[in-house]
Design brief:
- There is one protein chain.
- The protein is mainly alpha-helical and 113 residues long.
- It contains five helices and no strands.
- Helix 2 packs antiparallel against helix 3, helix 3 packs antiparallel against helix 4 and helix 4 packs antiparallel against helix 5.
- It starts with a helix and ends with a helix.
Length: 113
């Protein structure tokens, strides 16, 4: 039996934003932050660190690999948390530490289940 066109279109839509894995979202933010750090201050370390950790979180989200997500999130919390405390500036270290803490909690809960 043939499907109506509206049913075919409904099957082609991406999942709603609420269905996106938090690792993917935070990974994209971290990677974009690395690019912004490079563009604004020609910081190669920001580009490399943001790109690699962002890619790690995106990979964790795409593959539903909570161990990888927890590892990368913990790394970012450990690395960016003290930078935030030392500088007192929320951007970028405070935001990355906070988002990473959230994904660390999320991944920990996923591993527990």
């Amino acid at each position: 039996q043939r499907q109506p066109p509206s049913a075919i279109v409904a099957q082609c839509r991406p999942p709603p934003a609420s269905a996106m894995d938090p690792n993917t979202l935070v990974g994209a933010v971290v990677a974009l932050g690395g690019v912004m750090g490079y563009v604004k201050k020609q910081s190669v370390p920001s580009l490399v660190a943001g790109g690699l950790t962002g890619a790690g979180l995106i990979t964790a989200g795409a593959t539903k690999n909570s161990k990888l997500g927890a590892f990368v999130s913990a790394f970012l919390v450990i690395f960016m948390g003290p930078r935030f405390v030392k500088s007192g500036k929320f951007m970028p270290s405070g935001m990355v530490a906070a988002l990473s803490a959230l994904t660390l909690i999320y991944n920990g809960l996923q591993l527990k289940n």
